[in-house]
């Protein structure tokens, strides 16, 4: 059987929110080590990879690896009923045809329980190699969210270039061009406000702003976001979840013909 | 003019 108890249930709610605009049906893979998700959007240009270690849970038992096939719009409806401070409990039998969800709140004394029918989802899995990227940038996730949101008024494609000058986001459209440059900045006492740029060689790639905006739904999960780029490769946009896991997005670059 | 390849052209199928 599978049983997991997460004191801060809100983390799981935020994970669901971070992927539900990209994919509809998803398998949550449960193993003795972690809960994980790998899925692509319907156009297969973006991929989400989520991992939440068993150490994130107060109680974690998984006798046999299993996949929980979920419809995210339905899961999201159930999580709307979860309170901010609720503890979440997930339970499934090895046959995995339904998932039990419980939201408990000690303060108010409430226990809400739901039974969700599971689906068999055929999903293509890709092997994503652990590549050394030419540029790695760490920046406040709220800044990244603001930049990709603001640039949407200029156009639908964002050029991200990493040079020794800094990290530049540019968008061009009918009304003109906008550029936002982020320089390395480690002046603040708070590490989460730092911008660090680790560049082996300059990289310049184009991406669909629509997708970059989808990815920023993970902003509440992490104060910092890590961007990794190499020439001609999908960008990696990683939101670490404390020391317990991550949500990573991969997006294929737009190539110029 | 831009074109976008699917992730299959970058990553191997498992």
Structure, explained:
The complex is a heterodimer of chains A (257) and B (14). With 257 residues, chain A is mainly beta. Helices cover 14% and strands 47% of the residues of chain A. Chain A has helices at residues 10-19, 72-79, 141-150, 209-215; strands at 2-6, 25-30, 34-40, 46-53, 59-62, 66-71, 87-92, 98-105, 110-117, 126-127, 135-140, 157-163, 166-173, 176-182, 196-199, 203-208, 224-229, 235-241, 245-251, 254-256. In chain A, the strands form 3 sheets. Chain A has a 9-stranded antiparallel sheet. With 14 residues, chain B is an all-beta fold. Chain A binds chain B through residues 40, 43-47, 124-129, 157, 206, 208, 233-234, 250, 252-257, and chain B through 1-14.
List its salient traits.
heterodimer; A: 257 residues; nine-stranded antiparallel β-sheet; 4 helices; 47% strand; B: 14 residues; mainly beta; 36% strand; rod-shaped
Concise synopsis of the structure shown:
Chain A is 14% helix and 47% strand. With 257 residues, chain A is mainly beta.
Alpha carbon gyration radius of chain B: 9 Å
Q: Regarding quaternary structure, how should these chains be classified?
A: heterodimer
Mean pLDDT of chain A: 96
Shape of chain B: rod-shaped
Order of helices and strands of chain A: EHEEEEEHEEEEEHEEEEEHEEEE
List the SSEs and their pairings.
The complex is a heterodimer of chains A (257) and B (14).
Chain A: E1 2-6, H1 10-19, E2 25-30, E3 34-40, E4 46-53, E5 59-62, E6 66-71, H2 72-79, E7 87-92, E8 98-105, E9 110-117, E10 126-127, E11 135-140, H3 141-150, E12 157-163, E13 166-173, E14 176-182, E15 196-199, E16 203-208, H4 209-215, E17 224-229, E18 235-241, E19 245-251, E20 254-256
Antiparallel strand pairs in A: 1-5, 1-7, 2-3, 2-6, 3-4, 4-19, 7-8, 8-9, 11-15, 11-17, 12-13, 12-16, 13-14, 17-18, 18-19
Helix pairs in contact in A: 1-2
Chain B: E1 2-4, E2 12-13
């Amino acid at each position: 059987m599978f049983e997991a108890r997460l004191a801060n249930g809100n983390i799981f709610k935020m994970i669901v929110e971070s992927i539900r605009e990209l994919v509809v049906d998803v398998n949550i893979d449960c193993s003795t080590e972690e809960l994980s998700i790998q899925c692509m959007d319907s156009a297969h240009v973006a991929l989400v990879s989520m991992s939440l270690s068993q150490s994130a849970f107060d109680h974690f038992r998984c006798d046999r690896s299993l996949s929980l096939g979920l419809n995210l719009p339905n899961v999201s409806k159930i999580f709307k009923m979860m309170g901010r401070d609720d503890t979440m409990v997930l339970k499934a039998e090895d046959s995995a045809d339904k998932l039990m969800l419980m939201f408990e709140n000690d303060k108010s004394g409430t226990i809400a329980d739901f039974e969700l029918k599971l689906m068999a989802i055929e999903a293509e899995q890709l092997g994503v190699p652990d590549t050394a990227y030419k540029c790695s940038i760490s920046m406040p996730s709220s800044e990244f969210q603001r930049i990709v949101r603001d640039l949407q008024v200029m156009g639908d494609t964002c050029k991200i270039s990493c040079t020794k000058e800094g990290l530049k986001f540019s968008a061009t459209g009918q009304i003109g061009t906008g550029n936002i440059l982020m320089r390395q900045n480690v002046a603040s006492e708070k590490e989460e406000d730092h911008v660090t740029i680790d560049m082996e060689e300059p990289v310049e790639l184009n991406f669909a702003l629509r997708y970059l905006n989808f990815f920023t739904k993970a902003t509440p999960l992490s104060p910092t976001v890590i961007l990794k780029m190499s020439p001609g490769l999908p960008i990696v946009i990683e939101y670490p979840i404390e020391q317990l896991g991550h949500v990573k997005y991969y997006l294929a670059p737009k190539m110029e013909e | 003019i831009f074109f976008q390849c699917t992730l299959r052209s970058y990553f191997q199928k498992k």
